[in-house]
């Protein structure tokens, strides 16, 4: 996840925490029909809250923290999920601080910034050899 997104080293710990959070939604090996959350809490996990790591968007600001003339939302980057509640960890671009917000709107219409990572290992998994019947040459 981190090499494909070309994540800055500052956000690597947030990426690892998000990956660990998402791992709890993956099916177990020994129990093929259940997830870790389903096993521990006996409830199906809610997948509608999952978001793309380090995606740009806007987080809503609480009414108690703004005046009438302030904006209702601020630009942010999605970093992960809060540990103790159903909230999101976001990086507020204006103050350059990590904050927790209950509601965010991610911009899905912008182009992704994923980087194609090419594996440099020359491992050959399967090789097919075709033999030409007319000549005794082998084509690889």
Encode the helix/strand succession as letters. Answer: HHHEEEEEEE
Rg measurement, Å: 23 Å
Mean pLDDT: 72
Number of helical segments? 3
Helix content class: 10-25%
Largest sheet: 5 strands, antiparallel
Catalogue the unreliable spans. none
Distance between the termini: 35 Å
Structural class: alpha+beta
Beta-strand content? 15-25%
- With strands numbered from the N-terminus, the spatial order across the biggest sheet is 4-3-2-1-5
Shape: extended
| Overall number of strands | 7
Assembly state (oligomeric): single chain
Number of separate structural domains: 1
Question: What does this protein structure show overall?
Answer:
Pfam families: SH3_retrovirus. InterPro entries: Retrotran_Ty1/copia-like (IPR039537), SH3_retrovirus (IPR057670). This is Putative polyprotein. Residues 58-109 form the Retroviral polymerase SH3-like domain. One of its GO terms (molecular function) is hydrolase activity. The protein has 140 residues and is of the alpha+beta class. It has one domain (2-108). Helix content is 16%, strand content 22%. It contains three helices and seven strands. It has helices spanning 2-5, 12-23, 36-41; strands at residues 56-60, 73-81, 88-92, 97-101, 104-106, 130-131, 138-139. The strands form two sheets. The protein has a five-stranded antiparallel β-sheet. The radius of gyration is 23 Å and the shape is extended.
């Amino acid at each position: 996840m981190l090499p494909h997104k070309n994540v800055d080293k500052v956000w690597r710990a947030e990426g690892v925490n998000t990956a660990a959070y998402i791992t709890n939604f993956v099916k177990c090996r020994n129990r093929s029909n259940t997830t870790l959350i389903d096993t521990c809490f006996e409830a199906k996990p809610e997948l509608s809250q999952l978001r793309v790591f380090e995606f740009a968007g806007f987080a809503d600001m609480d009414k108690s923290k703004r005046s009438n003339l302030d904006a209702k939302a601020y630009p942010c980057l999605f970093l992960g999920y809060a540990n103790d509640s159903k909230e999101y960890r976001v990086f507020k671009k204006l103050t350059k601080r990590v904050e927790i917000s209950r509601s965010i709107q991610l911009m899905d219409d912008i182009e992704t910034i994923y980087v194609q990572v090419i594996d440099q290992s020359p491992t050959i998994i399967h090789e097919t050899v075709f033999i030409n019947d007319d000549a005794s040459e082998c084509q690889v």
